[in-house]
Amino acid sequence: MSSPETFYDVFRQQGISRRSFNKFCSLTAASLGLGPSFAPRIAHAMETKRRTPVIWMNGLECTCCSESFIRSGHPLVSDVVLSMLSLDYSHVLMAAAGHQAEAALEETRTQHAGEYILAVEGNPPLNEDGMFCIVGGRPFLEQLKEMAAGAKAIVAWGSCASNGCVQAAKPNPTQATPIHKVIRDKPIIKVPGCPPIAEVMTGVLTYILTFDRLPPLDRLGRPEMFYGQRIHDKCYRRPHFDAGQFAEEWDDENSRKGYCLYKMGCRGPTTYNACSTVRWNEGVSFPIQSGHGCIGCSEENFWDNGPFYDRLAEVQTPLGVEANADKIGLTAAGVIGAGVAAHAAVSALTRVRNPNSGE
Amino acid sequence: MTVQTPNGFTLDNAGQRIVVDPVTRIEGHLRIEVNVDDSNIIRNAVSTGTMWRGLEVILKGRDPRDAWAFTQRICGVCTGTHALTSVRAVEDALDIQIPENANTIRNLMQLALQVHDHIVHFYHLHALDWVDVVSSLSADPRATSELAQSISAWPKSSPGYFRDLQARLKTFVESGQLGLFRNGYWGHPAYKLPPEANLMAVAHYLEALDFQKEIKKIHTVFGGKNPHPNWLVGGVPCPINVSDTGAVGAINIERLNLVKRIIDESRQFSEQVYLPDLKAIASFYKDWGFGGGLSSQNVLSYGDIPDHANDYSAANLMLPRGAIINGDLSTVHEVDQRDSEEIQEFVSHSWYSYDDENRGLHPWDGVTEPNFDLGPNFKGTKTKIEQLDENAKYSWIKSPRWKGHAMEVGPLARYIIGYAQNNPEFKEPTEKLLSELDLPVSALFSTLGRTAARGLECVWAADKMDYFYNKLISNIRNGDLATANTERWDPSTWPSDVKGVGFTEAPRGALGHWIHIKDGRIENYQAVVPTTWNAGPRDNEGNIGAYEASLLDTPMADPEQPLEILRTIHSFDPCLACSTHVMSPEGEPLSDVKVR
């Protein structure tokens, strides 16, 4: 058997120069908030490591996490699965099925005990002896526990595995249960979101592979680097919030100007995620940028905190006092009162100009 | 024992039983059991959905304007189509008219889904049923280049390109860590491609993996993210502002340019990679004509892609609408989702209870009470099932029927109906493909036909994206910027008790949502999804469903290696999270589901 393919080999095969490789390592270090001194360590790790086996299991879910994962632009998912890790089991992508698939699972469990990363998409239902989710004739729950026992680390992909998500919304008919409630003796990295951002997913895995350690987690088990701040904290529409400029109705003049969506129910002020910084699909947009408020999909029980279009009752203002949006708007109106009057006139004019609007 | 089904199939469960569980390269959890005779030909087939989440129970009592977000989470693969179906159902119930731009943007998003889903299905979920990855290591890169250049103008086709790729694959295989390709069926006698075609296909597998993420950026532009973009009852959430202050916070020329670039690339990839690959691969499998099942008899499509807003009549829908029964292509029947006698779901072989299981129930009147009863004759234990009993209940999927008929849905159904209607957009590409492969029309009714229809539809959908892009530009140029109608946004403007139905053609086939809104809240919600139609179990009269029918009479080279089963089941593009759902019109809490 020849030497295993490493990250660096991949770069070379793709005709990427040593210089570009070093640049990539510097950028990786920077994007992970690590400073330039970490770049050589990243380069060293990428040049020498054998690929870590990853077992990706699916419980009750909708496969949006797998779909998000394959959207990753940096690294490209083709490089991830060919060169960065060894995806030994994945319902969605693996060639083998049935006995051959089960055998792949068993081989990794026995031959790589303590070495593999278990990535879990979805969650186990506890009602009906677990038989609301059957794999190989057995409850998914059993298979999950078996594979968890030999894993060196466990990643809970998405809100299903982390928090329960939609099938656990009231009345949770199957008793769908987040994985940390059935696996209690292992570190679990929660990567919530419905789904999580692709580059956050590959970023979390790459971090573990590169530094050979788990990322620092907050008290809820989420990587601090991606879930340490609220969407509101870094939202590019934040100045409109602070100025009391809000969209009042769908497709109104304020919406078209990109004003704050807080009054439309935006959950950005209470949602910890990287959407307003990393953004989605290689930085193309994120919900607020495309005109819809955040629904808080990375927060626990977000499905039961609706309706989504009811505004949050209280938010923290820049002055540190609790106030609702109307109060903020009132305060700001004193400063920009003349602007508001002009703005109202423009809105009326636009409505006349666009008789179709609202139809 | 030999059984004749009312829908014309002969079943014999005497021979060796083969179990495939999990079926992989699908969405969700599926189990297939078959019996093979002494010649290893499949004589009986049993399709079992093995998951259940209960989303429609969860929807009860919630705000109808939120329903799209819940139902979108039915499936993250066909992400968007459930949300679109849901907002259409609510708009139907509340009689909300959406602006023309909203219809156009929704179509762009739905078509982007079709293109993406079909490409990912062909290359990442289905190709390995036809393509032997290991064989590609022995290909001659020069000959591979000649093959690639003979079928397409796609630029990534030089000998050096294929040589580099092959070297990468060799390193990968020699590392001993086969990852996704571990325990595959490499060397199986059912693989027919020469090494060069295999190498070309593996190259395109990887290219498609890198390209697919681009297509869904259309969802990200209009819906903020993908998977699971945002939608809106009454229109779309993204405002349009191309000229004025704040344009950068809305749909503007930069956003439109991005959409246009993706459309152009999608058309190019569909025409220069997907379709030529499909033809090349099919040409080596022309004598593998199995897997037709119900397709030559009963097919159903609701139609989709309304040209103009708010008109869901067949004449305004660009994807064909109608039903064909008993193989009579001369008559395409009208379909009415509101008629309680047309679409009904049965549960006699599903893990649910009805008061009278000899009757089917229309979605507006449906009942779901889970009943995980394996019957007296299954083998194994409740939590270690070895063999299911198809004479008892055996699936978490119900059996939907149209006027009592088991139907196949999906791209092949749409193409057969379009063909029967003499719609040139569907008939002409079909005839061209058949003639290029020198195959008769009857060859459509097969596993290969299902796979081919999907490829043709991808090209069609990419072209239609261009049509709707131009329509959006022209509307904006004419000064129409409206994207949402908020007249009935406030629940106080709603009638107290209304019902609605919304439908789409999901990538996998006909999708319908039925909603009952009472006093501003969801009283009742039901989804009947494509994979329910295709993967459902037998009904009370013993009619088998599309998956089961498609597997019959297929020879297996080696029953221990179920490649032929995967090939045919994958041709439907299974989506199991979609298919296993539940509703409870009486509103009884299901949180006290019996735990035995």
UniProtKB/TrEMBL annotation, chain A:
Protein residues bound to [4Fe-4S] cluster 1: 62, 65, 160, 194
Keyword Nucleus on entry: no
Gene3D superfamilies to which the protein is assigned, alphabetical: Cytochrome-c3 hydrogenase, C-terminal domain, NADH:ubiquinone oxidoreductase-like, 20kDa subunit
Positions that bind [4Fe-4S] cluster 2: 232, 235, 260, 266
Catalyzed chemical reaction(s): H2 + A = AH2
Predominant location: membrane
Database matches in InterPro entries: Cytochrome-c3_hydrogenase_C, NADH_UbQ_OxRdtase-like_20kDa, NiFe-Hase_small_C_sf, NiFe_Hase_small_N_sf, NiFe_hydrogenase_ssu, TAT_signal, TAT_signal_bac_arc
Key words, A-Z: 3Fe-4S, 4Fe-4S, Cell membrane, Iron, Iron-sulfur, Membrane, Metal-binding, Oxidoreductase, Signal
GO MF term set: 3 iron, 4 sulfur cluster binding; 4 iron, 4 sulfur cluster binding; electron transfer activity; ferredoxin hydrogenase activity; hydrogenase (acceptor) activity; metal ion binding
Ranges for domain Cytochrome-c3 hydrogenase C-terminal: 227-308
A cellular component annotation (GO) from this entry: [Ni-Fe] hydrogenase complex
Binding of [3Fe-4S] cluster, residues: 275, 294, 297
Enzyme class label: oxidoreductase
Pfam families: NiFe_hyd_SSU_C, Oxidored_q6
Its EC number(s): 1.12.99.6
Domain NADH:ubiquinone oxidoreductase-like 20kDa subunit residues, every copy: 62-207
Quaternary assembly: Heterodimer of a large and a small subunit.
Protein name per UniProt: hydrogenase (acceptor)
Source organism of this protein record: Pseudohalioglobus sediminis
UniProtKB/TrEMBL annotation, chain B:
Main location: membrane
Example of a GO cellular component annotation carried by this entry: plasma membrane
Gene3D superfamilies membership: Cytochrome-c3 Hydrogenase, chain B (1.10.645.10)
Record's subcellular location: Cell membrane
Magnesium is among the record's keywords: yes
Residues annotated for Mg(2+) binding in this entry: 56, 581
EC number: 1.12.99.6
Record: residues binding Fe cation: 78, 578
GO MF term list: ferredoxin hydrogenase activity; hydrogenase (acceptor) activity; nickel cation binding
Topology of this chain in the membrane: Peripheral membrane protein
SUPFAM superfamilies according to UniProt: HydB/Nqo4-like
PROSITE patterns: NI_HGENASE_L_1, NI_HGENASE_L_2
Cofactor(s) the protein needs: Fe cation; Ni(2+)
Binding sites annotated in the UniProt record for Ni(2+): 75, 78, 575
Keyword set, alphabetical order: Iron, Magnesium, Metal-binding, Nickel, Oxidoreductase
Reaction(s) catalysed by this chain's protein: H2 + A = AH2
Superkingdom: Bacteria
Subunit structure: Heterodimer of a large and a small subunit.
Protein family membership: Belongs to the [NiFe]/[NiFeSe] hydrogenase large subunit family.
Role, per record: This enzyme recycles the H(2) produced by nitrogenase to increase the production of ATP and to protect nitrogenase against inhibition or damage by O(2) under carbon- or phosphate-limited conditions.
Protein name: Uptake hydrogenase large subunit
Species of provenance: Pseudohalioglobus sediminis
